[in-house]
Amino acid sequence: MSTLDKTSLKLPVENPEAEDFLPLLGTDYIELYVGNAKQAAHYYMSAWGFQPLAYAGLETGKKDTVSYVLQQGKIRIMLTSPLKSGGDINRHIDTHGDGVKVIALWVDDATKSYQETTKRGAESYMEPVELSDGEGTVVCSGIHTYGETVHIFVERSAYKGVFLPGFQKWEPLYRPNDTGLKYVDHMVGNVGWNEMNKWCEFYAKVMGFAQLVSFDDKDISTEYTALMSKVMSNGNGRIKFPINEPADGRKKSQIEEYIEFYNGAGVQHMALATDNIIATVTALQNRGVEFLKVPATYYEDVLDRVGEIDEDLKPLSELGILIDRDEEGYLLQIFTKPILDRPTMFIEIIQRKGAKSFGKGNFKALFESIEREQAARGTL
Ligand code: FE2
């Protein structure tokens, strides 16, 4: 393992080392398999301010599943539940609990994306398929990635409908305000022991990504636990996938806890960007979202570490928002507690003020905070 490569912190918007045979326009949607999509949709609306967008279920001709699609800024989340027992989604939920099944990527050509990735070794999940309704045609294809997670390529230039063919507009009376979330900044995967390099190579070889940053257990360790992480990014820099694996520590790391409760590799967190983190986190907290807290001492010397910032320190410290700086600027970030019953997935809120990195300076304070939560669960 290399230690942190200082030059790699100078992240251009574009990643010239990435080979762009697979131009990705952005994250199209994130699909979670959940036990009760109707109630989960209510949570993402009420607590997070996602807006109702589309629905597919019995009323639209689906027999086996129901899906709610919500949107905020450019972030689209699909929540899918089975309507009958015994199927693959039921098994997925039984094995993993609620979790991310699909990270869908918006592309110009889903057929070419499928061909280019499968010929480089990706395992097929779904051959290219044309989906049509009165609003036009969408082409989708898919490949497997770590664990049971998949990528679906979505080509939607010939489609004018609300989401995908088969979905109808979802227009409930209940529409809480949004919370200022704008786009998916990055999606993080947890993989098992000694699997990080394998999956980084997958993103490099199969999808043409390049490595932006690497952290080893010296960067990311506390008295008790450690992990290793590498960040992979596509050519235009719009898609960033950090991959974590556990490292040896005196006690069980948060990655091991995740792998144990998720029963394997999967999405650990999604980082959602805002351009006003104080307003966003204030709204989220008022609506019941629970965040990890660092000790008040964190704020005593934080400005010595990160230098001058535009924001007042007081609201940041009251909300527990963390600050870090790299060569290009600074960032503000905060992490929720796990948002599910199992201690698996959580959400990061991030505001970038020039910085293109991921908050390395906060890792220690943050992981000590996670360990206090693990200790309370008896899983440290
Ligand atoms: Fe993150």
Q: State the low-pLDDT regions, or none.
A: 1-12
The main β sheet shows up as:
9 strands, mixed
Radius of gyration from CA coordinates: 20 Å
Give the H and E element order.
EHEEEHEHEEEEEHEEEHEHHHEEEH
> Averaged pLDDT, please?
91
Bound molecules: fe (ii) ion
Trace the largest sheet across and list its strands.
6-7-8-5-1-4-3-2-9
Label the overall shape.
globular
Tell me the strand percentage band. 25-35%
Structure description:
This protein is α+β, with helices and mostly antiparallel strands. 48% of the residues are buried. The protein contains 9 helices and 17 strands. The N terminus is likely disordered. It has a 9-stranded mixed β-sheet with strand order 6-7-8-5-1-4-3-2-9. It has an 8-stranded mixed β-sheet with strand order 11-12-13-10-14-17-16-15. The site of fe (ii) ion has 6 residues, from strand 10 and strand 14. The site of fe (ii) ion (FE2) has 6 residues, from strand 10 and strand 14.
Summarize the structure.
It contains nine helices and 17 strands. The chain is an alpha+beta fold and 380 residues long.
Primary descriptors:
380 residues; disordered N terminus; 9-stranded mixed β-sheet; binds fe (ii) ion; 9 helices; 8-stranded mixed β-sheet; alpha+beta
Secondary structure layout:
Blueprint: E1 26-33, H1 37-46, E2 51-56, E3 65-72, E4 75-82, H2 88-96, E5 99-106, H3 110-119, E6 124-133, E7 136-144, E8 150-155, E9 168-169, E10 181-190, H4 196-205, E11 210-215, E12 226-233, E13 240-247, H5 254-262, E14 266-274, H6 277-286, H7 302-306, H8 313-319, E15 322-326, E16 329-335, E17 346-353, H9 363-377
